[in-house]
Amino acid sequence: MSSMALMNRRSGETIASTIELAMTRSARRRGLLHRSGLDADRALVLAPCLAVHTAFMRFAIDVMFVDRAGVITRIVRHLAPWRVAASRHAYATIELAAGALDDRDVVVGDRLYLGTDITTAGDAASFCIAT
User: Tens digits of per-residue pLDDT, 48-80?
Assistant: First the structure.
């Protein structure tokens, strides 16, 4: 897990204050399986990843797909168990507890970044995480 937060560059809002990275094939495959839920302030970032499924999961999730620059390409809210979601232009997928995005100001086209506050994201900042 990371001490960095997931931030929205446009609004300066914190989307998730605790980030878990799934950067290996086995970590992405495991994802949120075998968990009973996810705290509203946490997010799982899977990269590279342009599609997710909720087969065998016990709870719904909110999903954001982002490109390499961290720009949101698609948002899926309340993705129920046994469903699939994808975004052809995504580099990474961000999974949050279902409803976590209901109170957050996020829209397709927003740029997200990992940081501690909005001032840490210069124009060169990228969501691209080395694999």
Answer: 999 999 999 999 999 999 999 999 999 999 999
| Mean pLDDT of the residues in the chain | 85
Q: For the chain, what percent of residues have pLDDT higher than 90?
A: 64
Q: How many residues does this entry show for the chain?
A: 131
Number of Cβ within 10 Å of residue 29's Cβ equals 10
d(CA 16, CA 8): 10
Looking at the DSSP assignment, which residues form a beta bridge with residue 64? 75, 94
pLDDT band, residue 85 (cuts 50/70/90):
very high
Q: How many helices, marked H, and strands, marked E, lie in the chain?
A: 1, 10
Asked if 104 and 15 touch (Cβ cutoff 8 Å), the reply is yes
Q: Which residues of 32-69 are buried (b: 16+ CB within 10 A; e: fewer)?
A: beeeeebebebbbbbbebbebebeebeebbbbbbbbee
pTM: 0.84
Domains of the chain in sequence order = 5-120 (2.60.120.1140)
**What is the per-residue DSSP string for 1-21?**
-BS-EEEETTT--EEESEEEE
